[in-house]
């Protein structure tokens, strides 16, 4: 599991800030965004970015972190809220617009914008967790860029125009070498070094120290350890631990960006592609995060990510991942264009049920190039028009990895917590537990604020079991302690 090279040079520290910034009142523009008379308040807006990981609730205020690749949720007419993971007031990272790095909204904020007056169906609200989550409404303008001065709402794309929206900044942990300015890693580095001294490793101390850290704190520890020892921290973990515990701890100390870079290499190395890891690393990510992975991958392995993935795949599957790696998705800030939805619904039908044989590349284009809000709108309108759920359509028209990849994307925009709970259960179902995949799914969820609690709720709702108890039954020893610590953080 050894890595060959460190991440690319730093692009500068970003400050973390907590909730409780001075509040500014931003009222909605008059006579333009108001709710049409007589419409009930709905839970999900068309024409507005899907700013949050679907199905995941906001974490407690002291744990708010910028969410990866997503724009912040901020509502017109609501006080502007600052979240952890957002840069302080001032210029954003070079090359990116002034916006917060995503994150979860404070609880109990409800937007009250009416649905647009249009003839086709309304997308349903995301299923499941939680009621206290901020509810977005139809017809609301895209949120202002929380963390900086609020901007005017972008135009709503009409039949004769396409609004692509501002590019999202990289997610928390995706700017190389970015550290936490409010965290001193000295004590934790010393605990880790003491735990690894001699012949007997103190695995409990390693687990307790590493699991509690967020991505920027992990990077702070990495830099401190390297400055003190001229070595990489993951190399120490590899030397002092074994098996599934080693897999999990090394994933944690790499942090999000370097882990996903390593995971793509792991997925494409050796005989056969490990499609599950490729999906986990690349699907559903923002353009900014894909570009960060591409740059870091080439810096580490001296090969272009596009070449590695293309060499490992073929046919429609290869073309699908070439589109993913091109990082040309419609930005979430663009919201939903009703004309685009109508056209894509017709294109999806023409590529599947309306012909003999499936145009797999065209279906992939619809799912890969659209933002989350548009995918959800397409799925809703397709079922309304053709009386066929898109999930059933995918299952009937596709097989193998491409089917699983499309379902991963679709289920992620519908209910991410439910999707991830089912995938986690899948690693433990039947004879033998897929320990490496189980660890990676829990660790990547652990990096998303609010994801683990939401997954636990969804898991209990689906299976009638406690996820922690289930993991305890399927694992043992220090590996069990690691996973339980992640679930109980």
The low-pLDDT segments are 1-55, 59-162
Roughly what percent helix? 40-55%
Tell me the CATH topology of the domain at 186-305: Annexin V, domain 1
CATH superfamily membership of the domain at 186-305, which one? Annexin
Q: What characterizes the major β-sheet?
A: none
Number of strands: 0
Q: Please report the first level of CATH classification, the CATH class of the domain at 186-305.
A: Mainly Alpha
Q: Label the overall shape.
A: globular
CATH architecture of the domain at 186-305: Orthogonal Bundle
**Beta-strand share of residues:** under 5%
Structural class assignment: mainly alpha
- Helix count equals 19
Radius of gyration: 22 Å
> Distance between termini?
26 Å
H/E series:
HHHHHHHHHHHHHHHHHHH
Mean pLDDT across residues: 78
Family: Belongs to the annexin family.
Biased composition (Pro residues): 86-95
Keywords: Annexin, Repeat
InterPro entries: Annexin (IPR001464), Annexin_repeat (IPR018502), Annexin_sf (IPR037104)
Short description:
Belongs to the annexin family. The chain is mainly alpha-helical.
Descriptive overview:
- The chain is an all-alpha fold and 489 residues long.
- Among the domains are: 186-305, Annexin (Annexin V, domain 1, Orthogonal Bundle), CATH 1.10.220; 415-489, Orthogonal Bundle (Annexin V, domain 1).
- It contains 19 helices and no strands.
- The radius of gyration is 22 Å and the shape is globular.
- The model is unreliable at 1-55 and 59-162 (pLDDT under 50).
- Residues 86-95 have a biased composition (Pro residues).
- Belongs to the annexin family.
- Residues 1-186 are annotated as: Disordered.
């Amino acid at each position: 599991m050894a890595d060959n090279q460190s991440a690319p040079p730093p692009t500068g520290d970003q400050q973390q800030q907590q909730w409780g910034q001075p509040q500014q009142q931003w009222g909605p523009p008059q006579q333009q965004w108001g709710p049409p008379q007589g419409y009930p308040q709905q839970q999900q807006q068309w024409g507005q970015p899907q700013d949050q990981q679907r199905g995941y609730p906001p974490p407690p205020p002291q744990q708010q972190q910028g969410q990866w690749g997503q724009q912040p949720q901020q509502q017109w007419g609501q006080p502007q809220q600052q979240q952890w993971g957002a840069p302080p007031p001032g210029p954003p990272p070079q090359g990116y617009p002034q916006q917060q790095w995503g994150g979860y909204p404070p609880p109990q904020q409800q937007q009250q914008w009416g649905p647009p007056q249009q003839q086709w169906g309304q997308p349903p609200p995301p299923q499941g967790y939680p009621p206290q989550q901020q509810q977005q409404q139809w017809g609301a303008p895209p949120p202002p860029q929380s963390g900086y001065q609020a901007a005017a709402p972008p135009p709503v794309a009409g039949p004769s125009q396409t609004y692509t929206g501002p590019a999202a900044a990289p997610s928390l942990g995706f700017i190389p070498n970015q550290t936490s300015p409010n965290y001193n890693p000295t004590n934790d580095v010393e605990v880790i070094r003491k735990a690894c001294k001699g012949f007997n490793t103190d695995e409990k101390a390693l687990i307790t120290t590493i699991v509690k850290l967020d991505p920027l704190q992990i990077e702070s520890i990495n830099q401190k350890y390297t400055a003190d020892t001229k070595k990489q921290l993951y190399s120490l973990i590899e030397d002092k631990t074994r098996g599934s515990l080693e897999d999990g701890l090394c994933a944690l100390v790499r942090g999000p960006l370097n882990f996903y870079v390593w995971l793509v290499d792991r997925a494409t190395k050796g005989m056969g592609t490990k499609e599950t890891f490729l999906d986990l690393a690349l699907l559903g990510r923002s353009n900014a995060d894909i570009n960060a992975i591409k740059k870091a991958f080439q810096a580490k392995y001296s090969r272009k990510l596009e070449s590695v993935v293309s060499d490992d795949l073929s046919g429609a599957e290869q073309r699908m991942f070439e589109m993913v790696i091109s990082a040309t998705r419609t930005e979430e800030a663009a919201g939903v264009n009703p004309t685009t939805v109508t056209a894509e619904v017709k294109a999806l039908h023409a590529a599947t049920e309306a012909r003999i044989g499936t145009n797999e590349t065209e279906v992939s284009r619809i799912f890969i190039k659209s933002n989350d809000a548009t995918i959800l709108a397409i799925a809703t309108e397709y079922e309304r028009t053709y009386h066929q759920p898109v999930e059933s359509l995918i299952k009937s028209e596709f097989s193998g990895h491409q089917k699983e990849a499309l379902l991963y994307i679709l289920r992620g925009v519908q209910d991410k917590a439910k999707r991830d709970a089912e995938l986690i259960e899948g690693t433990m179902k039947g004879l033998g537990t897929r320990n490496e995949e189980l660890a990676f799914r829990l660790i990547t969820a652990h990096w998303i604020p609010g994801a683990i609690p939401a997954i636990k709720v969804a898991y209990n709702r689906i299976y009638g079991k406690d996820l922690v108890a289930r993991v305890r039954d399927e694992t043992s020893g220090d590996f069990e302690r690691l996973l339980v610590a992640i679930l109980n953080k």
